[in-house]
């Protein structure tokens, strides 16, 4: 997401009847069910890939992307894509990272994944609930920057698509997450100047198979439209799919932000404890002057304990300011609090953000948020309807 650009929603909200909404949900459910059944078969054959149909294209660690061989589908102009392999993190962390039912959630997600350059929520069909915090069906628009577009060699691609996410269960009762992107069209969502409207259909299935390991199988196809060089289209398709490797990281950073909000509220009620002049991790003595008011870089922002330069761990967290800017701030933690954050209830964090609509307030990051200090990176983008 390019934080130096600003756009507004180029279409406005879609006008959808109850019948339209029901049809969209039915389409999404039907597509997801087909991919869910494919995943069950994938498990039945011990997750083996048919190399007579699929050709290895790229990999990141043990996660591999395959392209469909031409002789498997000779009539197709573009090959289908298959991604298989483990993702880091738990199922809930990956789901928390990928679900973005609102514009604000999309902006924060994109700050961690950098998966598109501009986007907007056009219609909300199904919202997350207390019982199903990862269940969402939304119509969205997004634009993807194409190398060479800035000098007029090619035009950027944009997509109108139905996004659906949620949880299903295998026959043995184990939870499986899904994430669907599927192109749709509406009269109101007209083609835009200097962009080529593309089409895509992707679906990822996620299944936790260890304490910090989630199996993934994703399939799809992307038609970027126009006369884009085939290899560029394929690379864009693979890059978009491989963004899933960062889902759990995004979920973990959002959990950290939520835990910060909790601790900040507790500190407002009881008062923040005074940091002892010793590192909470290695117990090294720290000069009292370094713990004075305003020196938040010397303490853990969760437990307020002192940290030496060696033991402090910095994480860059994203949030939306009251004037609708996307802001990022490096925040310091101790290792104990980071471990605690990974063990916290991810579904409850999702409920707070998606169901109760509680956003992290800038004050939890310290009084310097919004300044030009070395630890702050504040974007200039604002948007009520779209993001860029």
UniProtKB/TrEMBL annotation:
Protein origin, superkingdom: Eukaryota
The UniProt annotation puts the region (Disordered) at 364-388
**Coiled-coil intervals:** none
Q: Where is the composition biased (Low complexity)?
A: 364-381
Family matches, as Gene3D superfamilies: 3.30.530.20
PANTHER family for the chain: FYVE-FINGER-CONTAINING RAB5 EFFECTOR PROTEIN RABENOSYN-5-RELATED (PTHR13510), RABENOSYN-5 (PTHR13510:SF44)
What is the protein's given name? FYVE-type domain-containing protein
The record lists the organism as Phytophthora megakarya
Q: What is the lineage of its organism?
A: Eukaryota, Sar, Stramenopiles, Oomycota, Peronosporomycetes
């Amino acid at each position: 997401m390019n934080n130096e650009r600003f756009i507004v929603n180029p279409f406005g909200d879609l006008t959808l009847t109850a019948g339209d909404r029901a049809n969209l949900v039915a389409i999404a459910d039907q597509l997801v069910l087909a991919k869910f059944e494919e995943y069950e078969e994938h498990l039945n054959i011990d997750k083996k890939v048919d190399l007579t149909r699929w050709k290895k294209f790229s990999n990141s660690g043990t996660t591999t992307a395959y392209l469909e061989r031409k002789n498997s589908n000779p009539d197709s102009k573009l090959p289908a894509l298959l991604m298989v392999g483990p993702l880091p993190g738990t199922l809930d962390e990956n789901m928390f990272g990928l679900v973005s039912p609102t514009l604000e959630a999309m902006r924060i997600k994109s700050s961690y994944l950098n998966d598109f350059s501009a986007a907007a929520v056009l219609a909300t069909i199904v919202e997350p609930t207390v019982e199903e915090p990862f269940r969402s069906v939304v119509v969205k628009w997004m634009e993807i920057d194409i190398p060479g577009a800035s000098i007029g060699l090619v035009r950027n691609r944009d997509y109108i698509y139905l996004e659906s996410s949620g949880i299903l269960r295998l026959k043995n009762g184990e939870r499986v997450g899904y994430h669907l992107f599927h192109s749709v069209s509406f009269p109101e969502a007209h083609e835009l100047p200097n962009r080529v409207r593309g089409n895509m259909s992707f679906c990822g299935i996620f299944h936790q198979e260890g304490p910090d390991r989630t199996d993934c199988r994703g399939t799809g196809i992307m038609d970027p439209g126009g006369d884009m060089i085939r290899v560029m289209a394929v690379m864009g398709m693979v890059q978009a799919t491989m963004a899933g490797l960062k889902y759990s990281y995004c979920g973990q950073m959002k959990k950290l932000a939520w835990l910060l909000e909790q601790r900040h509220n507790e500190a407002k009620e009881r008062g923040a404890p005074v940091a002892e002049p010793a590192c909470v991790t290695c117990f090294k003595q720290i000069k009292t002057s370094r713990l004075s008011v305003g020196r938040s870089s010397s303490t853990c922002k969760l437990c307020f304990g002192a940290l030496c330069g060696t033991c402090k761990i910095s994480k860059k967290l994203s949030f939306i300011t009251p004037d609708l800017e996307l802001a990022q701030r490096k925040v310091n933690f101790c290792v104990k609090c980071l471990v605690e954050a990974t063990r916290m209830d991810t579904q409850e964090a999702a409920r707070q953000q998606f169901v109760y609509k509680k956003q992290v307030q800038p004050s939890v990051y310290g009084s310097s948020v919004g300044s030009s200090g070395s630890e702050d990176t504040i974007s200039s983008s604002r948007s009520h309807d779209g993001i860029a």
